[in-house]
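The records we work with from here on pair a chain with its fold. Taken together, the C-alpha cells spell out the fold as the letters spell out the chain. The record below shows the convention in full.
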Amino acid sequence: RGRERRARNGVEVDPGGLDRPLEPLEALAPVGVEESTEEDRPLAELSDAFRRGKEAGAGGDLPAAMNAYREAGADSSIAPFALNNLALILRRQDRLDEAGRVLAQAIDRYPEYHRAHYNLGLVLRDQGRGEEAQSSFEYALRCKPSHARSWAAIAGLRAARGETESAGQAYAQAIRFEPTSKGYRLELGRTLV
C-alpha cells in the first residue's frame, strides 16, 4: 500500500467511490472511517442523489452508490459531504490515490470539514505516510477539538513510533471525548504496558 499521492490542492479528481464504511477498522485499532451524516447537514436538506447514494451503499450496491455520490457532488451545497462519502468507497476499493484526490476536493470546498481531514489522514496512513496523516488528523482536531477518532488515530501513530507517553496522552483525550469506547481504553492499556 505504499503508493504515492499528489499534493492536496490543485490536483485532478476522478470522482468515483462511495461512503460505505470499510471493514471495521476497530478490529485493527479503535479508529474507523467517518461517513457524512445528518450531523453534517440534516438529511431533509440533502439532495435526492445523496440519499440514493446512502441507500445504495447501505445495501452494498457500490457502483450505484458511487454514481449517486458523483451526481450529488455536482451540487455545491452538499459536494463536500458527497465527496467525503465517495472517497470512502474508493478507499474501500484500495483506490487510495483517487480517494485522496476526492478528499482534497472536499476540503477545498469546505476547509473546516473535520470528517474529510480525518478520512484523508486514514488514506495517508494506509499509504504509509504517517507524518502527513498525523497532520491531517491534527487539522481535523483544529476543526473539531472533541473528535475522539482523530485523537485515537494520532495516538496509534505515536505508539507505532514508540512515543509511549504522548500516545497515552492522546488516547486519554480520545477517552475523554468518547468515554464509552472500550477500544480506546484497550489501546491505552496496550500502549502503557
The two ends are 29 Å apart (CA to CA). Residues 79-92 form the longest helix (14 residues). Confidence is low (pLDDT under 50) at residues 1-31.
